[in-house]
Automatic annotation (TrEMBL):
Family (UniProt): Belongs to the TMEM179 family.
This protein's name: Transmembrane protein 179B
UniProt membrane topology term: Multi-pass membrane protein
Domain of life: Eukaryota
Source organism of the structure: Etheostoma spectabile
Length: 257
């Protein structure tokens, strides 16, 4: 919350005057809010997958199968996926979270310490490329979580007596040392976080594309220190420079008629 308030104050302090760059500042502020949200989603997804693995002794329950022990009235794991599958899902979420956290810190430093917000075209192109890569891997991760969870739930519904919904198995007894009290809710939370993260990065890509289109030169500076400064100050990119200030110290002598 304090990070968000700092960013809001820094950008708002530089957009009080009506200026064309104010739209860029608002878009950047929204982009930073999305970075913070993506960071939270990545941490939630990675933590949820890790919790399920811990409850099942390090096994990856995506695409897993269960059977029912009628003698002990308990649920046991028949087969599970390779742990590297869950490690992959967690790693993607952690990488996204780290990148979002780093970008947030960078813009906080640029805004509050440097005193100006520079958006270079190269940097925007890099963010667009990163957005495309993250969208690809988040799409794969979301599909893996969806299909893997459905496969596990189908096995639970088919093999466990008196269970019509997957979440009902959380209240049933599991073979020790397995703990199935939150396997469905944790997997559902991880899947939701990944899809929300995917949606946020899609918006980030669109926002950066809009900002790149609105930038007229090689740099888009939200604060307005550089860029087109009007007819008089356009040469030095300073909106406050008058025509008299741009004249040379020694005027050229008039040419003879």
């Amino acid at each position: 919350m304090s990070l968000w308030l700092a960013l809001r104050w820094c950008v708002a302090d530089r957009t009080r005057d009506p200026d064309p760059t104010m739209a860029l500042a608002v878009l950047l502020l929204l982009e930073l809010a999305l970075y913070a949200s993506c960071f939270v989603c990545g941490i939630v997804a990675a933590a949820s997958i890790t919790i399920v693995q811990g409850d099942f002794g390090g096994r990856c329950m995506l695409y897993g199968l269960v059977n029912y022990n009628a003698t002990e009235s308990s649920i046991d794991v028949q087969s599970s996926s390779a742990p590297s599958l869950c490690y992959f899902v967690s790693a993607i979420s952690v990488v996204v979270a780290v990148v979002c956290f780093s970008l947030s810190l960078y813009w906080v430093y640029t805004c509050c310490i440097d005193g100006e917000i520079r958006r270079e075209r190269v940097g925007m192109n890099l963010i667009i490329a990163v957005s495309g890569v993250f969208l690809f891997f988040l799409l794969i991760t979301g599909c893996m979580l969806k299909i893997g969870r459905d496969s596990l739930c189908n096995s639970v519904i088919q093999n466990v007596h008196n269970v019509t919904r997957c979440e009902e198995a959380q209240a049933r007894k599991w073979v020790s040392p397995l703990n199935g009290e939150r396997f469905y809710s944790s997997l559902h939370k991880a899947e939701t976080s990944v899809w929300v993260n995917f949606f946020f990065w899609l918006i980030i890509g669109v926002l950066v594309l809009v900002q790149r289109r609105q930038s007229s030169g090689p740099k888009a500076i939200v604060e307005g220190y550089e860029g087109y400064g009007g007819p008089a100050g356009g040469l030095f990119s300073d909106a406050g420079v008058t025509a008299a200030e741009t004249e040379p110290f020694f005027n050229n002598p008039a040419r003879p008629q």
